[in-house]
Amino acid sequence: MLPLNYQEFVTRDMSTISGKAEWRVATKDGRKVPIALIVRVQAREDDANPEKVTRSFIAVAKITPNEACVTDRIPEGAQSETEVRREADSAQTRSCAQPQPPVTVDGAIIR
């Protein structure tokens, strides 16, 4: 299983995971099993001020016996907590997110 790569699928800019992670679980065969993970990813897009958080995203990742991947990249504030949890609870039925476009300067890929 590959690691969740938030810089590939949420933001190409410098980023950190902020706050608490929320595990979503389901009961299968009488046992609770993880089905999704919700985290806040803070982007730092200002190269002149790399400590400044410029945007935040809520990232939803599905967890299955065979894969774990980011399914949703939601700008913070675009959905309520209830809507984000609903997305997470149905994440196993959705495809993995496409990678973010590379960051370029003068046509050269830098990240």
Helix and strand arrangement:
Blueprint: H1 6-9, E1 14-28, E2 31-44, E3 55-63, E4 68-75, H2 81-89, E5 104-105, E6 108-109
Antiparallel strand pairs: 1-2, 2-3, 3-4, 5-6
List keywords for this structure.
mainly beta; single chain; 111 residues; 4-stranded antiparallel sheet; elongated; 2 helices; two-stranded antiparallel ribbon
Strand content: over 45%
Rg estimate, integer Å: 15 Å
The helix fraction, in percent, is: 10-25%
Amino-to-carboxy terminus distance: 23 Å
Count of discrete structural domains = 1
* Low-confidence sequence ranges: none
Largest β sheet strand count, sense and barrel closure: 4 strands, antiparallel
Tell me the total number of β-strands.
6
Summed up, the helix count is 2
Please give the order of strands in the largest beta sheet: 1-2-3-4
Reading the helices and strands in chain order gives HEEEEHEE
Return the structural class.
mainly beta
**Outline type:** elongated
Overall pLDDT metric = 89
Describe the structure.
With 111 residues, this protein is mainly beta. It has one domain (6-109). The chain has 2 helices and 6 strands. The protein has helices at 6-9, 81-89; strands at 14-28, 31-44, 55-63, 68-75, 104-105, 108-109. It has a 4-stranded antiparallel β-sheet with strand order 1-2-3-4. Strand 5 (104-105) and strand 6 form a beta hairpin. The radius of gyration is 15 Å and the shape is elongated. The model has no long low-confidence stretch (mean pLDDT 89).
